[in-house]
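Dig into this one:

. . .
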Amino acid sequence: MKPRAVLIGPPAAGKSRLGRRVAARLGVGFVDTDKLVVAEHGPIPDIFEHVGEETFRVWERAAVVSALGTDGIVALGGGAILDVDTRLDLLDHNVILITATPEAITSRLAAGTRPLLTDGIDSWKKLVSVRQPIYDELSSFIVDTSKGTMDSIADDLATRLKVAQ
């Protein structure tokens, strides 16, 4: 058993929002690896503050392994692809890069909720510049959430996934 699709991409691109909608349209389950970590270990900002990013990444990896054993839609946290084993695992999956322009991201960044984005959009741009080559290497196609409604984007992606079956 493996997911119908795995969504990767930078923070605030819309992986979770889109993933939930696509899963509903396809009648399959949805798993968000960040939510798995939070359910077991608490809020991500608290994890970063109290035990650090390294421990978070270990817990995130465990969540990825669990999620990749499901058969619905999976949304990975933006940095999950930094783990070499995760990248190797994704080679055998339908990986979709969810992205958005910096202009669209600016309005989505809530102050204080994303520990690696303390400087807002400037932090986001730096983070994306480092991760983009990995995102590009792993993904089979790109979905941009900058324009249009999340519902119309989800409709398009669900249709594409149905056709690809």
